Sequence to fold (484 residues):
Amino acid sequence: MARLGLTVAVAVTVLAGTLALSGQAQGGREAQPVPRADCGDGARPETDIQGRVPAADYASGRVDRGYRCNARAVSHHGSSGGFKVHRYTDARGQTCAFYDSTLVFPRDLVYNLTSGLGVVVLAMDNPKRPRQTATLTSPAMLSPHESLLLNEERGLLAATLGTAATYPGILDVYDVRTDCRHPRLLSSTPSGLLGHESGFAPDGRTFWTASTSGTLVAIDVSDPSSPLPVMVQPGVNYHGLRFSADGDTMYAANIGQPDLGSLDLMGRTGLDVLDVGRVNDRVPGAVPTVLSKLTWPGASIPQSAEPFTQDGHDYVLEMDEFADLFSLKGVADLANAPVGAGRIINVDDPRHPFVVSDLRLEVHQADVHGGEQFHDPGADFPAQGYAGHYCSVPTRDEPRIAGCSMIASGLRLFDISDVEHPREVAYFNKPQRPGSRPTFPDVAGAYAMSAPAWDAERGSVWFTDANSGFYDVKLTNGVARLLR
Fold:
């Protein structure tokens, strides 16, 4: 194995995945919410502060109509969803959607036995009538957790078996280039070590797994039928892993290390910027080199940092998930624990990144977070609530819009043309009533956690809500122009 350049320093310290979360950054002023969207024709606007679905709307029945602003549903499929939605057009010109159908396996097993297990494949050539053509049920696809990624350059769909703190990281790799409606399994191997989150190098040659329990693994998938681990690094607690265009710089969401001296279970959370060029070049013994570490006031659990360029500058759009519920302060006062939400970070100089602006809703703010809205349906569940989860942009080059799944607040769309002054331009939220499905676990409100996908030609965005399934949402009242 040394001959193949496998760096294994596996004196792995495995923290329970349920504890692999975050602390709170200190100091600085409180970040402010973005301006509200100006809703045009056809809106069913929110009735309270930005992002909130109040208990009064459940009592009155208003919630059943949903909430939309400059957006409307083109189509809907299924009744559950997970963490990722991907869009791909194959060599035949067929367009498909891929989405994971569960948040946490086996917690959702009972419900998913009726709604379907695995990664769902939809034919999307007619967006008004999505047609399910396959369900991927190999080991990793049954419980990919947050690891499902698509490499468009090579037409590869891959994921590792993840969570339950944490499953063996079985890596499944599928060919979707040949026929995206019927992906072909190329390999299923234990090469990921442990699973949870992931990253895919832009050239499609390296798939990275991050366990959030202390391991980072680089896997050579140059031959996707025979993946080979080329680096295993213990002692790092990373979440989502994203890369510069050349693949040599990694933007790693750092969920921190225990700091018992400050009574913070996960220490300093934030963004790590790393040089991974030597790993990409397959230099024997190479490990990533940390170039910088960035944190920010009110940090919660960094999820991922999506790279993009704007006006000649390099940025990442970073989103924190949940509240700061795993510092001792958060455990003691969950209702008032900080909500990190999102931010745009300048990474022109990878050794000196800095926050440019914040992406927050009014419901995220400290002066309201612990108020009466904490008792809205779904808002007091630690893994749900009014918080962020994933964001995406339709293109890495000069995007003018970003989409973020903000859990109980649904899908939120932001104009990022001016990176220093982002503003909300649209939203779509379809909460469910508690008790609306007969199986465990019960639903409550919205549970939008997926990274959105984009149909720029049709002016639409795709996302899933774990409580209600897949949506194709068309942007209206001129907002779709931001996609062109």
